[in-house]
Amino acid sequence: MNPFEDQPPSVEFDGVGFRYGRGPEILQDLRFTLQPGSFHFLSGPSGAGKTTLIRLMLLAVRPTRGLMRLFGADAGRLAGPALTATRRRMGVVFQDFRLLDHLTLYQNVALPLVVQGYEEATFRGEVLELLQWVGLDREAGTLPPTLSGGEKQRAAIARALIAKPQLILADEPTGNVDPAMARRLLHLFVELNRFGTSVVIATHDVALMDQVEASRLILADGRVYVDP
Amino acid sequence: MTRPHHPQDEPRARAPIQAFGHPGRLVPSEGGAERSLAAVIAILTFLAALVAGAAEIGLTTAASWQQALGREATIQVRPAPGRDLEADTERGAAIARATPGILSVRKVPAAEAARLLEPWLGTGADLSDLPVPRLVALALDPGRRPDLPGLAERLRAAVPPATLDTHQAWMERLSRVAVAGGALAAAIVGLVLLASAGATAFATRGVLAGHREVVEVLHLAGAEDRFVARLFARRFARLGLGGAVAGATAAGLLMLALGSLPARFGPDNDGIQGLFGAVSLGWRGYGAIAAVMLLQGVVAGQVAAAAVKRFLKATS
Questions:
Q1: Between the CA atoms of B218, B221, B226 and B229, what dihedral angle is there, to the nearest 10 degrees?
Q2: Which end of chain B has a smaller Cβ tally under 10 Å, C or N?
Q3: What CATH architecture applies to the domain A38-61+78-227?
Q4: With an 8 Å Cβ cutoff, are A88 and B222 in contact?
């Protein structure tokens, strides 16, 4: 029995196109569906638009044409509290980490819970446990500028996971870590997926993709091809 | 083969984990820009508070002058050919005494009237050949205003060379000057508030533009617009209020110092004190300064909140 039978797709693209301003359309006629609890790799050459596609799904930018649905809701109409509620169902790992340099790693990881109004007493242990899991428990009180790229990346992953999102969008999440840590992080994503979280990982790393049986979304020439 | 050395391999001292504390920490401090804004608001508040304080002194002085003038009236008896000046003066004083609402009637001695002319004629001038009028000073009962037009009418009938001066023209002119002064002060305070609002909006937009990425991270982490708006608006309201408190305190202290100046230079100084009495603010004056301070804080908070909302709308 499919536990997600009654749930709408996490992501649904139907003829979606996107352009920045009056520039050329960099994503064209995208059609794909990501079911709840599914695992996907998003691949394609540099500059193919992987990051833009992630930003579309994150609602950081909106489609310039076509229909995009997130958790069954028309993303074009999302605004105010509904937009925030949808964003809270997603966790994101940015390629450039986007950690806030004036906050410690602990505070960065706790950020999604703080902005959602949780009291610190309710999440402190959980944040420290997650930091321990990504091997950053000793650095919990450290500011990001003093950390290596790999450490920042692991902190960014911890921040994306802390609020237990239904959909994780990760842009090159293993790009700055050694192969052993990459395997460990991938295992973390797989574990989360096993508990029902949909996962989309944008990556170039073929070896990484070979480690998990997952469908691949391949971006090329502004279009997406699904390799089930 | 040995693994290449990497700084990550160095055991790192465990840094203490700070509690999250106030959500205001989510936005990094813009030291220079924020200090500049607080300084601008402090200076503007100082100027506005001085204007408000000075206006309050002016209005209070005008009111006390009006009150004093309203308690007095003067009968002026001009010498007339074929008439006895002294008898006319006595008759005028008697009519005044018989009028209800007049507390006292005093014939101003000729020598005292001559002293009033000293600024124009010099001391020791012989006034016997000049048609110097005689004056009768009337003290009016403020609780029971006498019928001054009736008195003027009776004087005109009984003592034709006598006229009644109620100081009405002076009081009206004083009242107009006081109202104009108050309006000017209010306009200046309004302009200063407008300038503060402009400075706050400009600084808020600058800080927001500098923190565009922080705002995006907060949004994508699930922050609502109003949460982000509150973070910035509270910070700028605090800055505005801080600057306003500093400026208003400085203005209050300056007023206090000016109030002590006449005492310092002796009770006989006839400069500012001669004109205004003492340059001291009453509780209403300090109230006006406090009101300017609070208005500045409120304006800074509201303008910052509006600027943040506009920014968030534009970026989302």
A1: 0
A2: N
A3: 3-Layer(aba) Sandwich (3.40)
A4: yes
